[in-house]
């Protein structure tokens, strides 16, 4: 399973890379806006420190505008994956970008039907948002199960990025289902390492070590 880090914050990305846990990065307009710096400047810096795909989202609502933005973003680095919203205009853009050899990540996916369309359009990646479904009392993980079943049924090549991850169990459950990728906030990557018995065990080992024969 690949881990992407879900942030536009360079410090978090560098920490995740140092841990060896970053196979790629996903950003979105909200995450970029939080950084208070120009979009392209942030993307260039991310591409310089990450050895893997970096998702950058378009904001146009029509296919032509999406294509213009996408080509400009893709020209910045081979690592750029253009994030396209799951709307009909978006699917037109994905079809064309796939034909041009530009990698895409279809975002804001909330149903198996949407994921089916994205795969048929040729998306490189598809991002179902599980946390936002959980937030409205719909089990997000059921969506991952359904999408994986559909993609396996037909051999679709689109990789599933489990997105809107809120806690470690989201990652573990996604791994049990066999999802290709989880895009994870830095805080949750750090939480994955934690176990109280590890801390207690370490404390015990170190205290016993101090009492050893010299
Ligand atoms: C994924 O690509 C999105 O950036 C992200 O996972 C959205 O997460 P949120 O629901 O916590 O905003």
From TrEMBL:
Enzyme active site: 83 (schiff-base intermediate with substrate)
SUPFAM superfamilies: Aldolase
GO CC terms: cytoplasm
Reaction equations catalysed: D-sedoheptulose 7-phosphate + D-glyceraldehyde 3-phosphate = D-erythrose 4-phosphate + beta-D-fructose 6-phosphate
GO BP annotation list: carbohydrate metabolic process; ketone catabolic process; pentose-phosphate shunt
GO molecular function per UniProt: aldehyde-lyase activity; transaldolase activity
Pathway: Carbohydrate degradation; pentose phosphate pathway; D-glyceraldehyde 3-phosphate and beta-D-fructose 6-phosphate from D-ribose 5-phosphate and D-xylulose 5-phosphate (non-oxidative stage): step 2/3
This protein's UniProt keywords: Cytoplasm, Pentose shunt, Schiff base, Transferase
Enzyme class of the recorded protein, top EC level: transferase
Subcellular location as annotated: Cytoplasm
InterPro entries membership: Aldolase_TIM, TAL/FSA, Transaldolase_3B, Transaldolase_3B/F6P_aldolase, Transaldolase_AS, TSA/FSA_arc/bac
Family the UniProt entry places it in: Belongs to the transaldolase family. Type 3B subfamily.
Protein name as annotated: Probable transaldolase
């Amino acid at each position: 399973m690949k881990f992407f880090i879900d942030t536009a914050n360079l410090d978090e990305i560098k920490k995740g890379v140092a841990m060896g846990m970053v196979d790629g990065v996903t950003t979105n307009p909200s995450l970029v806006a939080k950084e208070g710096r120009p979009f392209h400047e942030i993307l260039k810096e991310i591409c310089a420190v990450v050895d893997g795909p970096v998702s950058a989202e378009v904001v146009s609502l029509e296919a032509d505008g999406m294509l213009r933005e996408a080509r400009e973003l893709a020209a910045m680095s081979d690592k750029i994956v253009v994030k396209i919203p799951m709307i009909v205009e978006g699917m037109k853009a994905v079809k064309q970008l796939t034909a041009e050899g530009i990698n895409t990540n279809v975002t804001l996916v909330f149903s198996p039907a949407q994921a089916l369309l994205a795969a048929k359009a040729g998306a490189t990646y598809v991002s179902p948002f599980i946390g936002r479904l959980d937030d409205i009392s719909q089990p997000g993980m059921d969506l991952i199960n359904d999408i994986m079943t559909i993609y396996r049924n037909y051999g679709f090549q689109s990789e599933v990025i489990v997105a809107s991850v809120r806690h470690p169990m989201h990652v573990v459950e996604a791994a049990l289902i066999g999802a290709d990728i989880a895009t994870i906030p830095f805080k949750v990557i750090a939480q994955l390492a934690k176990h109280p018995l590890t801390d207690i065990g370490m404390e015990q080992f170190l205290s016993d070590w101090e009492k050893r024969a010299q």
